[in-house]
Amino acid sequence: MSLLVVGSVAFDSVRGPRGAVERMLGGSATYFAIAASYFTEVRLVGVVGDDFGEEHHSVLINRGICTKGLERVPGKTFFWSGEYSTDMNDRQTLDVQLNVFATFEPKLSSQYRQSPYLFLGNIDPELQHSVAAQMESPLLIAGDTMNFWIEGKRKELHQTLKRIHVLIVNDQEARLLSGEFNLIKAGRAIQAMGPETVVIKRGDNGVTMLQDDDIFSFPALPLDEVFDPTGAGDSFAGGFMGYLTSRGLANGGVDRKAFRRAAIYGSVMGSFAVEKFGVDRLLHLTREEIDERLNRFRLLTHFE
Amino acid sequence: MSLLVVGSVAFDSVRGPRGAVERMLGGSATYFAIAASYFTEVRLVGVVGDDFGEEHHSVLINRGICTKGLERVPGKTFFWSGEYSTDMNDRQTLDVQLNVFATFEPKLSSQYRQSPYLFLGNIDPELQHSVAAQMESPLLIAGDTMNFWIEGKRKELHQTLKRIHVLIVNDQEARLLSGEFNLIKAGRAIQAMGPETVVIKRGDNGVTMLQDDDIFSFPALPLDEVFDPTGAGDSFAGGFMGYLTSRGLANGGVDRKAFRRAAIYGSVMGSFAVEKFGVDRLLHLTREEIDERLNRFRLLTHFE
Question: What is the mean pLDDT of each run of 10 residues along chain A (304 residues)?
Fold first, then answer.
C-alpha cells in the first residue's frame, strides 16, 4: 500500500546546547517520509528551489521514497532557522524564509490521487483541504497543524478537520485549538470537530491518543542525550502512518491494537530522530533496531 | 506485616477552582496511613494538639490504623493553608502554623521499633534520621522530602538518604536535590546518594521509578475532574508502601514485578485522593474499586 505525504522540504539551521548545524536537509515532509520509509512505500509531494542539489535528492531516493511529486521551481528552497533552550524544551525561531514554498499549490497526479493513505503535513489548511479533495478514495487521512494556522486560519482549519480521520498535534496545539487546558477534554473537543482519532504528543512526557471513547497513554522513552529535537513530531507521524499503511488498516476503531502499536512505532521513530542533528540518525536504521526499541517501550511500561 | 509511618497530622484549609474547605483533617501521615490501610496494618507516629477532637481521631481508628504513637500535647495542631492555581498545577502556601509540630521529637515504643516497614514522611531530615536509627531490624525504609529541607538541611538530608532504600519525591524535588534537569540523570544521581530505588512523581505526567539499573515509567490516569490535589503524593506513598508491606518484600531488586505493581497501586490511591476535598474520597473505598482502577491503568497503557 502507498502512503502519500504533502508538506515542506526545507533547509534548517539549528543551534542548541549540543552544537549548531547550518542548512541541513529538513522539513516536515522530509522527516515524515524518511521515518515512514521503514514501513511502507512513500510518495512525497512538495516543492524545492534551485539550491536543492542532487546530494539532497539522493537522501530521499536512497530511502526508496518516490519523489515524482517533488516539484523543482526557480528560486530558493524554504529555509528555517531556530535555537533550542538549554533544557531543549523550548525553541525560538530565528528566521523563516518561505521562498518557493510561498506559492506552493500541490497538484496530485492521477497515480498519486489513488494513494489509499494520506498525511497532510503542517501547511496552510486551505492547501490541506485542496489536497484532501483531490484524493479519489482514501482509506485514511491524517494531518498535523500548528499554532500559526490555529490562530490565523481557524475557519479553514475547521473545514480540513472535517475531512481527516486522525489529527496529530502537540499538547500546546491541542489546548489552543480546543480552548481546554485538560488534555483529555481538549482531545474530546477536537474529536467533536471531525477526527475520530486525536494523537497528542507531550514531548518528554509521552503521548496520549484518544480514539472514539478509548484512551491510550504512554511515557516517553528515557534518553540520555537529546541532540536535536527538530523533526521529532514529523518522524512520529511518519512511523505512525507508515505502520498503519503497512497493515492496510482503514479509519477508526476497527483495530485499536494496531493504532496503539502505531503510536509506539511513531514514538520509536521520534526517539531516533532526536539522537543526532537533522535526519542523520533516521537514515541508517534497520527494522530490527526499530523493533528492539519498540520492545524497550514494552519493558519500560509493563506491569503485572 | 506492620507498616510504621512518621509524619505530620494537620488541619488544612484549601482553596482552588473547585471551591474552598476550612480546617479539614490532613497532614502527610494522615493521607499516607489512610491510603496504606487498604493493604496492611498501619502504625502512625505523630503529634496533635488540644483541638484534635474525637471526630478526627475516629477517622483514623475507623480505618483500623493504630494510633498508639499519636501523641497529644497541649497547644494547637499543625495548620496549613494553601491555594491552587486554575489548572491545579501550582499551589501557593498562604499560611503555615507549626504549633505542637515545632517541638515534635518522635520516640518509638519497643513494639513500634520492631516494625519491619517504615515510611519517613516529609519532616526534618534530622528527625527522619533519629527515627530510622531507633528501628531494630527494618526490612524496608522509604522516605519523602521537600524543597525546604533540600535547601535548608542538605547535609542532614544526605545522612538520612544513606539509611533509606526508597526515596519518593516529585520532579522538582528530584531536580533540586540532584542538580540535574533530565529526570533519568536526576534519579541516577539520587541513587548514588543511597536509595536503591527512586520514585519520581511527575503530577499529571505520571511516575518514573528507577530501581538499580531498571526504569519503569507510566502516565497518569486521565481524570475528568480534580477537586483537590492536596495529599496526592502522600496517598501515592501509602499505596506504594502498603502494597509492598502486604507482600512482605524486602529492599531492592528482589522482586521488580512487585515494585512496579506497588507504583501503580500508589498512583491508584493518589488518583482517588484528588477526586474529593481532603481525605473524603479515601475513606470509603473497597479493595475491588482499587483493583478495578489498577486495571484501568493496564487498559490505558497496554499495547501488543
Answer: 96 93 96 98 98 97 98 97 86 93 95 97 95 95 95 96 97 96 94 97 94 94 86 97 89 76 98 94 96 96 93
Mean pLDDT along residues B287-301: 96
Q: Given the DSSP bridges, would you call strands A117-120 and A2-6 parallel, antiparallel or unpaired? A: parallel
What is the phi/psi pair of residue B143, to 5°?
A: -150, 165
Backbone angles phi, psi at A48, to 5 degrees: -135, 165
Give the percent of chain B with pLDDT over 70. Answer: 98
Closest CA to B165 of B275, B78, B240, B90: B240
Gap between the Cα atoms of B239 and B259, Å rounded: 11
Quote the pLDDT of residue B140. Answer: 95
* Best of B85, B261, B303 to mutate (most A CBs within 10 Å, chain A): B303
Q: Counting one residue from A and one from B, how many pairs have CB atoms under 8 Å apart? A: 81
Determine the Cα–Cα distance for residues B172 and B274; give it in Å rounded to an integer: 20
**pLDDT of amino acid B90:** 83
Say which of A219, A223, A263 has its CB closest to residue B219. Answer: A219
DSSP conformation letters of chain A:
-EEEEE---EEEEEEETTEEEEEEEE-HHHHHHHHHTTTSEEEEEEEE-TT--HHHHHHHHHTT-EEEEEEE-SS--EEEEEEE-TTSS-EEEEEEE-GGGGG------HHHHT-SEEEE-SS-HHHHHHHHHH-SS-SEEEE---HHHHHH-HHHHHHHHTT-SEEEEEHHHHHHHH--SSHHHHHHHHHTTS-SEEEEE-GGG-EEEEETTEEEEEPPPP-S-----TTHHHHHHHHHHHHHHHHT--SSGGGHHHHHHHHHHHHHHHHHHTTSSTTHHHHT--HHHHHHHHHHHHHHH---
Round to whole Å and give the CA distance between B37 and B29: 12
Give the ipTM: 0.88
CA angle (A230, A233, A239) in 5-degree steps: 120
Place of cell 528555517: A80
User: In this complex, which of A219, A264, A304 lies closest to B218 when CB atoms are compared?
Assistant: A219
Q: In Å, what is the CA distance from A19 to each residue of A15, A115, A203? A: 6, 40, 21
User: Cβ separation of A217 and B217 shorter than 8 Å?
Assistant: no
Chain A interface, Cβ < 8 Å to B: 86-87, 181-185, 202, 205-206, 208, 215-220, 222-224, 257, 260-261, 263-264, 297-298, 300-304
Alpha carbon separation from A67 to A25, A220, B2, B17 (Å, rounded) = 15, 32, 68, 53
Q: In a 10 Å sphere around its CB, with 0-12 CB exposed, 13-18 middle and 19+ buried, how is residue B40 labelled?
A: buried
Backbone angles phi, psi at B79, to 5 degrees: -130, 135
Tell me the sheet residues that pair with B71: B47
Work out the mean pLDDT of chain B and round it to a whole number. 94
Residue A52 contacts residue A82 (beta carbons within 8 Å):
no
Instruction: Give the other-Cβ count within 10 Å of A31's Cβ.
Output: 32
| Cα B79 to the center of its chain, rounded Å | 18
